[in-house]
Amino acid sequence: MRTLDDLDVAGKRVFVRVDFNVPLKDGVITDDPRIRAALPTLEKLLHRNASLVLAAHLGRPQGADPALSLKPVAERLSELLGRPVALSPEVVGDASWDLAQNLRPGQAMMLENVRYEAGETKNDDELARAYAALADAYVNDAFGAAHRAHASTEGIAHHLPSAAGLLLQREVETLRGILADPARPLVAIVGGAKVTDKIGVIDAFLDRADAILIGGAMCFPFFSAQGHRTGQSLCEEEGIAPAGRALDDAETKDCDLLLPIDLLCGEEFSADTTVTPIEGVNVPRHLMGLDIGPLTAEKYAEVILDAGTVFWNGPMGAFELPPFAPGTRRVAEAVAETDAVTVVGGGDSAAALAQFGLADRVTHLSTGGGASLELIEGRELPGVAVLEG
């Protein structure tokens, strides 16, 4: 994969695709780690006397939605960089062209939300060429969008000298590294709601990991495949068959596929419901499983603490409800305490670490949940593939 060291950027304009898809409330950014994660790349380019044309998306606007303008993002980035970042009122057109042409080395501008343009998500080549006309080189540092073949993540790279930014490079090398040559034992923690969303990850780890720890609502299709009762628990019907196949495959692999051995249940999905612990995994008809139980949490923690490499994606239960946070908390604590290389695949796992104050105690916290999963599965990421070879 081509890197920043392969690009001559001195005195040139560099189009940098970043992942600034940050949460907003009433037009105010509530969490800015994704902006901070891009700073090393931006600062390195600026230090090398480049000027920057920054591009990012925010949400899924239907046309030019003012509520999803990048104005607050440009303002926050200006503060973090310690220099003004002008926001173009449009994505492409006369205004963005003029701003780009007037950039001087060490200066930066930002295009409006690229998803204002219908051609962005269609990887429209005309739009990609319009992007390319604004700059002399292209850098992709948006790992969180690298699994999308969009005009600003894949199309533009065909029209300019291109390379990966520092964040994208680190994400890809770290995730590929835990598959290619991990310290053993390699333990994968896979949680969340749907088996169908993560069966590819489970299959990949069945061939590579020493143990897979299953949690969250996705454990119920596994239980159903084994003939257990799931009560009112969220049990994805489409996930039962692939869960059963994974259980069968695990019998022939050198990998332990571990399921919960006890649960915390409630009568409804609410922080006010009565918490009912159950031994075993047969859920009474009137209850729903909302967290792994304490025995499971300690069993999983023991496996994690003995690991050489840990990959975690997906919570163990409804951690957003305080009574059902203990399972995810205990797993998060073990991930933070272990001496293993720890890689957390973004999304809800990253949110859980932040909630428990443990985000700074892992080796690598991915900025791209979906992209990290697809890379683990062995699928080609268009935004990465175009930078290779």
Short overview:
The protein has 389 residues and is an alpha/beta fold.
Query: Biggest sheet, strands in spatial order?
Result: 5-6-4-1-7-8
Distance between the termini: 7 Å
Helix content: 25-40%
Named at the architecture level, the CATH assignment of the largest domain is 3-Layer(aba) Sandwich
How would you characterize this protein structure?
With 389 residues, this protein is of the alpha/beta class. Helix content is 37%, strand content 16%. The chain folds into two domains: 4-168, 3-Layer(aba) Sandwich (Rossmann fold), CATH 3.40.50.1260; 182-377, Phosphoglycerate kinase, N-terminal domain (Rossmann fold), CATH 3.40.50. Strands 5-6-4-1-7-8 form a six-stranded parallel beta sheet. A six-stranded parallel beta sheet has the order 11-10-9-15-16-17, sandwiched between helices. It has a three-stranded antiparallel beta sheet with strand order 13-12-14. Helix 8 packs across helix 9 (237-252). The longest helix is centred in the middle third of the chain and has 16 residues, at 237-252. The termini are close together. The relative contact order is 0.12. The model has no long low-confidence stretch (mean pLDDT 95).
